[in-house]
C-alpha cells in the first residue's frame, strides 16, 4: 500500500502520523500469539475438530488487529469519549459479575454471554487509564488537590469491585498505573512515597484476609527454599522451569513440548514456558525485546509531547502494558508468586486480548503526529 505524503484524507493523515514501528511490534506479538495458540490448542480443545480449533484460535487475534487499527484512527476527542463511556460500562459489568457472574477458581470475574466468557475488569484497565488522565488534566485548573481526588473516585470504585471478586493482581495493576500517572502529573514525591506505603499496607492486608493469596505466596516461597523431593510431583513453578531447561537455546520444535499437557492454563498464564520449551531461550529473549521496545519507544516519544492529557494517558497505557508483561513473565520464571495474568497478545484469551488491543489502539491514536491540534480534548 502506497500513501502519498500529500494525501490529506483520513487514511493518509493516519498513515504518516501513526507510530508504524510500534504498530509493527504489536502485530508481531499478535502473530506470535497465533503461533502459540496453535501450539497449545490441542491441550485446551481436545474435543473440538481441527477446523474449529483453527477458527477459534485465529478469531480473537484477527479482532485484535481490527481493534488496533480502528481505534488508532480516532481523534483524541473520540478517544476521551470512548474512555468515559467505556469505563462506566466496564465498571457496571464488573459490578454485575458479583451478582450474575460465574465463579471459577474462587473468583467471580466472568459473565457468560452468547457462548463466550467475558471478563469486564480487563476492559476497566485501559478505559480507566485514559479517563483518569483526562480528569487530572481537565480539573487541575480548579486546584491540583481537587483534581487528584476527582480522578481517584473511579479508581477507588474499581478497587472496591476488584476486591469483592476478588482479583488482587488486577488491583495491583490499577493502583500502579494510577500512581505512575500522578507521579508523571507532578504529585510531590513525599505523597508518592505515602501512596506506595498505602499500597504496601494493602498487600499485607490482602495476605492476612485471603487464603489463596497466602497459599500462592507460600507455594512460591517454598518452591525456592524447600523444593519438592523427587518422589513427589513437581509444582507448577518447577514444571515451568523444567520447560525452559528442556528447550535450551533453540527449543525442541513447534508442537514437540510436553509441559503444556501438565500445566494448567499453559496457553495463558504459563505460555512463556511453552515458548521456552518449543522455541528456546532465543525466542523468549526476542519476545522480551519486543515488549521492552514498545514501552521504551513510547516513553521516548512522550519526551516531545506538550499536551498533559496525552502524556498522562500514554504513560498509563504503557505502564499497564509493561507491568502486565512483567507479572506474567516473572511468575513463569518464579521471580514472583504466580498470578493469573496473561502475556499481552501472546496468551490465549479473548477479553484480555481485545482489551489490550483497545488500549494500544488508544496509545497509537494519542501519539499520532498532528500538524494541527484542534482535535485535542478540552
Describe the structure.
The chain has 378 residues and is mainly alpha-helical. The protein has one domain. The protein is 69% helix and 3% strand. The protein contains 13 helices and 3 strands, in the order ααααβββααααααααα. The chain has helices spanning 10-17, 20-44, 50-72, 76-100, 120-139, 144-164, 168-185, 189-209, 211-225, 236-247, 271-302, 308-332, 350-366, and strands at 102-104, 107-113, 116-118. Strands 1-2-3 form a 3-stranded antiparallel β-sheet, with helices on one face. Helix 7 (168-185) runs antiparallel to helix 12 and helix 10 (236-247) crosses helix 11. The longest helix has 32 residues, at 271-302. The two termini are 35 Å apart. The model has no long low-confidence stretch (mean pLDDT 84).
Biggest sheet: strand arrangement: 1-2-3
Question: Which blocks of ≥5 consecutive residues have pLDDT under 50?
Answer: none
Task: Please tally the helical runs, counting DSSP H or I stretches of 4 or more residues.
Answer: 13
Report the β-strand fraction as a percent range: under 5%
Global shape: globular
Helical content (DSSP H or I, runs of 4+): 55-70%
Total count of domains: 1
N/C terminus separation: 35 Å
Sheet having the most strands: 3 strands, antiparallel
Give the tally of β-strands: 3
H/E order of the elements? HHHHEEEHHHHHHHHH
